Structures are given as structure tokens and as C-alpha cells.
Amino acid sequence: MTSFWTWLSIIGLSMTPNLILGPSAAVGVGIAAHYDPSVLLPVVAVAGYIEGLVVAWLAGESTQIGFIGRWVARMRTPRSTALADKWGVWGGLTIGCAVVGQEPILVALRWLGVDMRRIWLPLAFSNAVFAVIYYWVVLFGFDQVAHF
């Protein structure tokens, strides 16, 4: 029964925003429980992917709310859309996720008018890459990374 609760906490933490260290905490729980990385990392990546899809869908739906839709329309300036066009979905979900986490990037992409069909594959790739990065950062130690 302990394993069930451990896996549930790993999945829940993986679905917690990156800015509050959710996926890295999930990896830490998995390492502390001595789970095999070949099982742990796909679980963290898939849970983060599902959370990302939900966030992206909610961000798109939020533009249907009157004042949010009007505010997003005002914020959608030529400069902001040029930035999105320059870096694109792949750049946003790789470089952007490294800087601010996936949730703000997904909201920004959806508010800039990027369709969900263009987000699925880069989001899956991003979650897989960052699950591996989180694993090595946690395994290596946060304090050691600061001195790297």
C-alpha cells in the first residue's frame, strides 16, 4: 500500500507547477523510494504532459471570458506576436520552460493564438527532456549544481 501512495505523490507532484519545484520534488520522492529511473522518468514526464495539456486547454478556454478575452486581445501586439513567431512553439517549450516553467509559456502561447495541435508534440518532448534534467539535478544534488 505504501507504493500506491508513493506513486500517487509522484504523479501529484509531477502535475504541480515547475516554479514551485513540483517535478523535481517528484523525482526526489522517486529517488528516495529507490525506484528505477526507467519507470520513474516516464511517469513524471507523462504526468507533467497531462498537466500541460490541461493548462493549455484552460488557457485557450479562458479567452472566452469577456474581460480576459478583451485583455488578451489588447496584449496581442505586433511585438509580442513577432516574439512568438521568432521562437515558435519549440523554442518556447524548451528554452522558455527552462527559464520560467511550462505553465506560463503554455498560457502565453495559447493567448497568442497558437492552436493546441501545434503544442502536443513539443510539449511531450519538453516534458521528457526536463524529466531527465530534473532527475540528474536531484541525483547530483541541488547544492552541487549551484557550484557547477
Description:
This protein has about 150 residues and is mostly helical. It has one domain. It contains eight helices and no strands. The protein has helices at about 1-15, 20-30, 35-60, 65-75, 80-100, 100-110, 120-140, 140-145. Helix 5 (about 80-100) packs parallel to helix 7. The longest helix has 26 residues, at about 35-60. The termini are far apart. The mean pLDDT is about 85.
H and E order? HHHHHHHH
> Which stretches are low in confidence, meaning pLDDT under 50 for 5 or more residues running?
none
The residue fraction in helices comes out at over 70%
- Total number of beta strands: 0
Helix-and-strand structural type: mainly alpha
Quaternary class: single chain
| Arithmetic mean of pLDDT | 85
Q: What coarse outline follows from CA principal-axis ratios?
A: elongated
The main sheet comes to: none
Amount of beta strand: under 5%
Task: Give the arrangement of secondary structure elements.
Blueprint: H1 2-14, H2 22-32, H3 37-62, H4 66-75, H5 78-100, H6 102-111, H7 120-140, H8 142-146
Summarize it.
The protein contains eight helices and no strands. The protein is mainly alpha-helical.
Describe this protein with a few key phrases.
mainly alpha; single chain; 148 residues; elongated
